Predict the structure.
Amino acid sequence: MQRNHVLWGALFGCLLGAAACYPGEIDSAAQTDLVVTFHDNAADFQANATFDMPDSVVDIGVAGGGSSTLDHTYDAQILAKVAAEMVAAGYTRVDATTTRPDVVVVVSGITVENYYYYTPGYPWYPYWGWWGGWPAGYGASSNWYYPWYPVYSTNFTSGTIFLTMVDPDIPPPTAGDQVSIWSAAINGMLEGTAPEISSRINNNIGQAFAQSPYLNVP
Amino acid sequence: MRIWTFAAAALLVPALASAQGERSSWFGLTWSMAGTTGTTKEFVSDYSLRGIGLEWRQLRGNKSYGLSLGWNAMNQESLETSSLPSIDLTGFQFRYINAYSILATGHAYLGQSGSARPFLGIKAGTYYMNRRVDVGLWTVSDNSWHLGVAPEVGFVVPLRQSYGSEAFYTAFRYNYAFKAGDTPTQSFYTIDIGIATRR
């Protein structure tokens, strides 16, 4: 009789042990990736046909008051992928120093925590002011203007790439501001091998455009 | 809700009233599997093999009353794009429900003692529901206490070599936790397989 108790106890203990394993935890860095896109509902994306973009990824972490160690290893890949997605969406790239583009796409990144990306008053000029593609009238006092304000994104505990599409033709509420009509935040853990990170960058930038079909122009 | 309350009272009260005179106790331990229904299924739809139950029943004749404790962990993993006005979000979503129950029980048994016997029961008490969504590096969760009822059917089979004191039993139970605050009604069914000892 006692033997039966032990046998059944052991058998049932194994069963419960198997049942108690906690399910479905994140098991790869790629599963932490998050692609968030914002757009201005009032924007007429179909009216745009040309674009240009500065040829660098700016580390804006410092602007949040913290330190940042953005890895620029993948800058060329990121910029090339964004440009390719814009072309695939029907836009034609022009040289903004000679031809005024309909939209400008800027790329930035941070690796700091507790950064308030959409806090009003964030200055853009110190980071892209050197670029020769801006229309006349934009100076050191210019800020980003987000039509979907207020949206706050906080606590970026790892790497985040921001894509911001600016339409210089839309008059901003405050003189000198730049009006963003579309923005993407790609957030994830900065872990993995170089090929894995490279693949995640391509996939997630592609996803940002894939989930924004309104960007497509004829 | 009134119907469920009445049903619970109709089975629990006679079970309590019958527990007079000679008594014996039943202690049960079950492996509890679960599937969601209704609004709970909209949150997590996958079938779960993770759960345990502990049960005490006070037996007399063909009725019993008792107490049941349970835990069921349900989860779902998916790559989804969620859309809000002006915002679209894509990421792996890991959704979890941990359902804990503390229920008073009443059962009625058919057949003869010492043989395989089907039983009917009703459980009523409280459910603590923890719902969580992990997406990217963010977590959103809420916790809520619910009142609830759980009708149950099952059968018990005495083990041959320990006749009269140990038994295998299984039960199918429908758990219905009433709306609590902003948390909607939660419902799930469980299939329990376990062993019980009678003293």
